[in-house]
Amino acid sequence: xxxxxxxxxxxxxxxxxxxxxxxxxxxxxxxxxxxxxxxxxxxxxxxxxxxxxxxxxxxxxxxxxxxxxxxxxxxxxxxxxxxxxxxxxxxxxxxxxxxxxxxxxxxxxxxxxxxxxxxxxxxxxxxxxxxxxxxxxxxxxxxxxxxxxxxxxxxxxxxxxxxxxxxxxx
Length: 170
Fold this sequence. Notes:
Layout: H1 3-10, H2 25-45, H3 50-72, H4 85-102, H5 105-118, H6 132-135, H7 165-168
């Protein structure tokens, strides 16, 4: 059937719109396959002239149509039309605008900077700057030291004898 008849059969109300704008993935894949095979066969047979080219296109198209029907049980012209690509594009633009309002990168950077500023400094060589024992240069196990067995937060327990902010978990 010709293109206008196919558009009417599929229920596309605007005859000036391309059929491709309403094709789903199966129909698009079938068409691409048909076009690719037709091009290959024209080159292989070195077909020349309008009549010969139309004949090759018709034969390849008939085979692809038959194969699609055999594999899916549905002829390509009977496949339902997909959402209008113009409406899909419009929906994507609207969604992108909505997400861009949600994904305010500057605000995210501010939140990250505030969160990083609130994190206590990591210990250097098992020395905690806020721990009085560490500040005093104690080399033995104590609250604030990862080797501390006093039961401090640093050793996985509760604060026993050190009142520094780090050991209390403040």
